[in-house]
Each structure stands twice: as structure tokens, then as C-alpha cells.
Amino acid sequence: MSELITADLVDLDLSADTKEAAARSLAERMVEAGRVTDLDGFLADVAAREEQMPTGLDGGIGIPHCRSAHVTEPTLAFGRSAARIDFGAADGPADLIFLIAAPAGADSDHLTILSSLARQLMNADFTGALRSADQPEQVAALIRGEEPAAAESAPVEPAVAEPTAAEPAPAEPAPAKPAASDSAAASASAVSSDASQTASEPVAPFRIVAVTSCPTGIAHTYMAAESLENAAREAGVELVVETQGSAGFDKLPAATIAAADAVVFAHDVEVREKARFAGKPTVDVGVKAAINRPAELIAEARGKAARGEIAAPADGAAEGSAPMDADGAAGDRFGTRLRKWLMTGVSYMVPFVAAGGLLIALAFAIGGYEIASAKSVADHFVWTETSSWAALLFQIGSAAFTFLVPVLAGYIAYGMADRPGLVPGFVGGYIATTIKAGFLGGLVAGLIAGAVVMAIQRFKVPASLRGIMPVVVIPLISSAIVGVLMFVVIGKPIASAQAAMTDWLNGLSGANAIGLGVLLGLMMCFDLGGPVNKVAYAFATGGIAVSDPSTGSLKIMAAVMAAGMVPPLAMALATTVRGRLFTKTERENGKAAWVLGASFISEGAIPFAAADPLRVIPSSMVGGAVTGALSMAFDCTLRAPHGGIFVVPLIGQPFLYLLAIVAGTVVSTGLVVFLKGLRKTVEPGATGQPGGGAATGGTTEDESKVAVAV
Fold first, then answer.
1. In the predicted model, what is the mean pLDDT of the chain?
2. 214 carries an active-site annotation
């Protein structure tokens, strides 16, 4: 196992002035070390992670990080910036920058070391040592958790020394402490020991159990845990944390949870097996709240316990009742959760759409549209005939398409009720296909299945039945209820609504079709791969997710893909024709944006939107609306759900389709160049810094803060 960080991955004089430039500078060191294979692809993953949540922390720390298929092994690069760089922290810019890169399938040993580092960042002695170090070898040794003496005598230790980052050092117990509690089980043991020592005291200490998690499960998860533990220690509270990170998680013992007086959830993804904590006073916040204000959360938990406020349902009996356990009444909160449930289903469905749709499109390209009526290749297949191969591809793609609605419904229910929701969700989705309720029926079936399972989970059952609840009782009862509802109660009305929507789409023409194209174009370019973009994409793919899609559905798919290509292509063109309006980093990103845009990867424009959202996003939306409208007006059609210009031969009216994309790209380019040029006219040399500062295309501090929310 290679070392997580070496001296070559340390820059003690990081000269970047933006977070994007800092990430690129540190990532280039990873490329030189052979740990990142594609610089631009990796930086796109870093930018996408940054869009989910700012990675700046109080105390002058920035921790940009991501999982990426372009990373060969878990790696950390460190930079120290005298000028300080804004990563969105509440207390200002950061001078200590840690770029953490984990492979898509990182092993648990390395991720444990990364989690140990995240905990150490909460230690003022550790960060102080990093600020005072004057040699890259010294910094690398500190981060690896090596003894100072060993670092001086052997600056570059063999890789076998690295696991010491997760073990306490007997010679210096205080610095090693933050790395010593990587697992919830170890924390639980410590609490049990403390509890036994204080058993004779007349007043038992207040006890809290906490769960921390973040989208990547690498840094914020463990930093939140360390922050809560430190604050609890100062408040005289016993606290045990279950970190649900990338390396998996060790469940807190049932006895520890039962003895707790309150629960703190600090998470940005659903808490796994949340029903274990049912019936306790609960504080439910985002993961950064635990990092920035842990003492407030502990005080809030104590207050809720004193008032007897029980946020989680007392009768949650099975795994995964996470979604509707939200405390309080909250329209916005429920709306956010509803979006997450639907997006869970869509995210699992999209790979089936992509695989099936591309196979069907390729079959049409080889054998023509009449291939849809070919005999089954199981009965008739000739190895030397192209028509047989075309029929084979079509039938494989069609097989993939048969799973679309069941997968959508099953994983919507899974998002609501965890594993118990899968069976009724898949059953309801399959019924939706048999009664021709389609995509709309799958949505409704998934929501009903999840709600039914969650309702069943609220019933208190005898201890003798709990073992068979998740494998027999819940699947049996929920599938029966969902089946009855879908077959004889709501299935037919939904099927009628689906048919009416299909007829409406087929009848779209003139201004109506153009208006729909404008709306879809605006949605595709609003958040560049975010929830609104995904809603438009799911609407389009749902229309073609049948063996014989309507002409209206094919037009919608074409408009959606064309509009989604505009933002990165426009940014690429803008950096080419007016490079002086952009920073050096943005000009480099512009080169990659050509390929990303041509491939229908809207996320290629994210670095530009993050740096200057008030100019880039409106410009992209206008261009996307133009392209969507023109695509619909030209009656362009598309059977493939993805592929960009590489599936142009499969597009109806291909030349007009390309014209629509070019028109939208030119409009977006013109607008963004105009708006950026207007800013430079209003703010000539506003920063007064050598090299132009903002006048060379960098963003102002206020704009950087706005970018965090985009």
C-alpha cells in the first residue's frame, strides 16, 4: 500500500487565488505522481462535489475532495496559501488546503486513514504544526502521523509505516488521540468504560448518541464526529458517534442507544437504519452544523430531552424508516424529501435507459426501423446476417427497457423505506407496465409502496414476530395492498392519464411545441446536472422508455439533449473568442468543455457557473431555451437517451438539429461575453492588484460566496 502523501504532494507556497486554481495546482502534483490519470476529468469530479456543499471549514481550512474513477489510489495533496483562498467557510478564506482524492472503489484501510486525518483537522495543535512547518517532508510526516524524531531522521518513510495514522503513539498520547478513535465500536467501548467508573455516582451523566454522514463519506463525516466529541467532553456529556462513512460503519450497540438520553443526526445523506434511534429526543441537522457549532447542538439535545420532545416515532420497528421520521410539520422539508425519493428512483433507472436506448438506437441504425418486428433471435439467428445482429441488439435493448418502470418504482420505495420497500415497489412497478400506466404509474406505485411499508413499520409487534417482519410479513402485506390498489383502484385512472399525456405530446405542434421546448431548455440549463436538470431529463427518458415511443416523446428527447449540450459548448466557445475575460484556469477548463459539451455532459459548465453564477447561468438558460425551441420547431427526433453528437446519425433532421445547437451556443456565448465585458467596464482594475485581479476574469469575494449556493 503506497503512502497517502509524500513530500512531492506538498506545496508550502501555494500561489493560487481561487479554489479552482488551488485544486488544479494540487491535482497536477497528483498527476505527476501517477495517482490521477485524467486531470480535467478528476477536476470535474472535484467541482461536482464542491457544488453539493462548500468544503471550507472554520479555522482557515479547505478540504476539496471527491471519489473519482480517474484516481488510481487514495491520495492527499497539501497546499499552504499565504494569500488565503475562499472555500465558503463562515469565518473567511483558508490557508491550509487539503485535496483528498479517493478511487471510486477505495479500500477500507486507506479510507480509515483519510477519516483519521479528518479528525485531526479538529485538533489545533495539529493545524498549528502544519502552519509552522518549513519542509515538505516534515508536513508529509505530520499528516502520515509519524513521530517527529522519525520524520527528521527519515523524511520519506516506507509505505508500511502509514497505518500508524490510525493507531495511538505511546510516546506522545495527546497528539495521537484524534486518530485513535476511528470506529464507533471503539468509541462505544470507551463510553462503556467511563460509565462503569461513574456507576457509583449519585447522578448519571447525560448521554448522547450521534450519527454523522456526508455525500462522499471521506472528510466531513469524521470531522463532524471529532467536533461533537470534543464539545461533549467540554460540556461533561457522554457522547458516542456512529460514523457512516466510505469505509462502512460499525453499528452502535443496542444497549448504548437504549441508554442514550438524546440523539444528534448530522448528515447530508439519509441515515442508514434510522429506526434504531426511534423514540428519542432528536436534533437533525446538516453535517457542517456539527463541525461549526457542536456545542449548540449538544445544548439543543439537552433542552429537548428536558422538555420531553420526542422527534422520532416511538413505534418504528424495522430498518430504514428514515424518510418520514422528520420532526415537525414542514412543507419545505417534506418537499425536499419527496424530491430525494424521486431522484433515487430516477438515478437507478437512468442506466437502464441509457443501455437499452443506445442498443435500440444502434439496432435501428444497422437494420432500419422495421427491425422492431423481427422474430425472436432465440428462434432465428444467422451469424453472418447484419439483420440478425440488428434484431439481437434491439431485443437486448427492449429487455433492458422492460425493467425501467419496475426499477423506478422499486427504488423510489427504497428511498422512502429502505430494503423493505423494494418488493412492493417492484411489484407495483411491474403492474404499472401490465396495465399500461407507464412512467406515471411507476412514480405513483413507488410512492404508495414506500408509504405502505412505512405505515406497517409504525405498528408495535410482539417480540416473537419481529424476526419475520422484514422477510415475510412486510413484503406479503405491502405487496398485497399495492397490488390491489394498482389493479382495481387507481391503476386504470393513471393509465388513462398516461394515455392522455401521450396523445397530447403527439398532438403538439406550432407554438405549443415550441413553448415546451423553451421550458425544457430552461430546465436543462438551470442547475447543470442538478435536480431541475434531472427532472427534465427523467421526463424525456420516461417518454422513450417503451418499445414503441410516440413521435412527441422522440421530439422531447431530442430537445432535452440538444439544450443540455449548450452550456459547456458556450463556455468553451467564449473562452476561445474572448479568452481575456476568463482566468487561466477557466481557459483550461474551456478546452475540456468542448468534449464534455459534445458528449452531452452538462456538468462541463459547472466550473464556470461556480466562479460566476450571475452571468453564466442566465446566459446558459437563454441559449438552452433557444436550442430547445428550435429543435421542437424543426421536428427533430431522437431515440437514444444519451450520446451527444456521437448519435447524430440516429437523429431525425440531423442537420437542423446541429443548427439548433449551434444557434443556442452562439446566443449563450454572446450573452456571457457581453455580461462579463460589462462587468470589466464597470469595474476597471477594481482590485488594484498586480495582474489585474478581478479584471482578468476572477470573481469578486461576494460572487464567490454566491457561487457556493449554485
1. 78
2. yes
